[in-house]
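Bug #77: duplicate submission created two jobs. Keeping one. Sequence:
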Amino acid sequence: MTDFSSHHPDWWRQAVVYQVYPRSFADADGDGLGDLRGVADRLPQLAGLGVDALWLSPFYPSELADGGYDVADYRDVDPRLGTLADFDALAAEAHRLGLKVIVDLVPNHTSHLHPWFQEALAAGPGSPARDRYVFREGRGPNGELPPTDWQSVFGGSAWQRISDGQWYLHLFTREQPDLDWSHEEVREDFRTTLRFWSDRGVDGFRIDVAHALAKDLTEPLRDLGSPESSGEDALSHLPPGTHPFYDRDEVHEIYRDWRTILDSYTPPRTAVAEAWVPGARRALYARPDELDQAFNFEYLQAGWDAEQLREVITDSLATARAVGASATWVLSNHDVVRHTSRLMLPPGTDRNAWLLSDGTVPRVDEQAGLRRARAATLLMLALPGSSYVYQGEELGLPEVADLPVDALRDPVWEQTGHADKGRDGCRVPLPWTTTGPSYGFGAGGAWLPQPPYFARYAAEAQTGVEGSTLELYRTALRLRRKLLSGEELTWHGTTNTPGVLFFARSDGWRCMTNLSDAPVLLPPGEVLLTSMPLDDHGPGGGTLPPDTTVWLA
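Kept job's structure:
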């Protein structure tokens, strides 16, 4: 397989990127926790799957207060996951196989174990060490109240008081103190980190919480007035660019600075922003002088509804095109219910309540969910732009909704007082074989319990099996590579059937998805691939069953 890195600097524009959550991917040393050697050992399977790149979720030193997104050292590897030499070996093997390597960067906050924060705690109020973070005096007669009403994403106040009476800001867990990005030392340290990994051959970066770095910290800090103004819907309550800590206009100065570093390499390093902001604002992060792409969460959040998806697809392509970027598409990741289960939940379902019921209210039909997920996958892979695939979705894995509460590791569970079950159900270690103590994940057990039904989803059970989900992904990715040319999409005008999405790519490749509950007529054409078998297709046409996608020549 050829390494295209030196010939195609814009390889990312229509790439398929496979997200690896290292602790749940493969365990080489048998301690129950996935590691970098485990990832390296399985790279041939990823190359054989046909993806273009792997994105490694954080593998840095961390106490796992938030699944590795609490980073104690940005330029090292957690000893439980390996060493820098292991990372170098992984990157070298990936490149030998023609795979690009993207690493997660977490610039909004550090771990409370980071040397900087430990120095800040020891140095005391007013010290230069505290200036790297957001420390403030409390309100009330004795400073006993938080400085503002800002809320943590994980529940409760976003401020934590320490023994000397000051409070520090943490938009996530209290073990994740927010950095002050107006401090030049903070900016310079992350420039160093970008160069450190780029020098080791990394091809790109995924920027965690990219929209939260810049904050309005002018005194007096302003209250938001309601908990909703701090959560995922916060940006709907204030004019664009004016929220005190989300999507502020000055955040783009940081990424313009980063772009000069990324472009100093040959080929330039790429970057994708995790920015939970509306489409027009999201596109700003992907301007040519900033980051190359931004995740499209409207698509991930859309229901299984043709009109809703058509609107999201059309808007997403338009906003990306307006800044010269390519669109991104994702169905699952390490933070959301796997789409095999999620797409079967009725509109309006409280997903946390569903998880708290152990996935029984309502109960998801496993086979129906898999059918719908396969259709959604072929639809996504036919769209112009980059597709981000989360580990295990190529096996058709459902959400493990019934994890026992004593096994939960996500801090959300404790921080919400057991009101939110958290994200562990999509992070259960992968099944590679049909037998063994952890279904081939490692020689020992797995850090989260795997259900017995994982055996039938294992890669071993699906490899070479015609019609399996794994073979569907392999076929689709191989075919997609041959069919790709331009980045245009034209909605097809030959059908006005409700519940159907039908479009053509610039080279004549067509995709039709039936999201209705009844079969629909297929247009004439050569069937290249279907998410499920067709019942009666022939030279004269036929019908497309519900919850099915077809690619046509």
